[in-house]
Amino acid sequence: MTRIILVPIDISDTELTQRVISHVEAEARMMMPKSTF
């Protein structure tokens, strides 16, 4: 079963973007989906 996490990000806010990416990557390690930024 393929799981995909699609994450819309605002690259103008680098601090928020980095926090979101870190969080999604941590979740992805648990669920093993494919992440798309």
What does this structure look like?
With 37 residues, the protein is of the alpha+beta class. It has one domain. It is 49% helix and 16% strand. The chain has a two-stranded parallel ribbon with strand order 1-2. Helix 1 links the parallel strand 1 and strand 2. The two termini are 20 Å apart. It comes from Raoultella terrigena (Klebsiella terrigena). This is Universal stress protein F.
Could you name the key traits of this structure?
37 residues, alpha+beta, two-stranded parallel sheet, 49% helix, Universal stress protein F
Order of helices and strands: EHE
Low-confidence region ranges: none
Strand order of the largest sheet: 1-2
How large is the count of helical segments?
A: 1
Report how far apart the termini are.
20 Å
pLDDT averaged over residues: 82
Shape: flat
Kindly state the number of beta strands.
2
Helical residues, percent:
40-55%
What structural category do the secondary elements indicate? alpha+beta
Instruction: Note the beta-strand portion.
Output: 15-25%
Q: Report the biggest beta sheet as strand number plus sense, adding barrel if it closes.
A: 2 strands, parallel
Radius of gyration based on Cα positions? 10 Å
Structurally, how many domains make up the residues? 1
Concise description?
This protein is of the alpha+beta class and 37 residues long.
Question: Topology of this structure?
Answer:
Blueprint: E1 4-6, H1 14-31, E2 34-36
Parallel strand pairs: 1-2
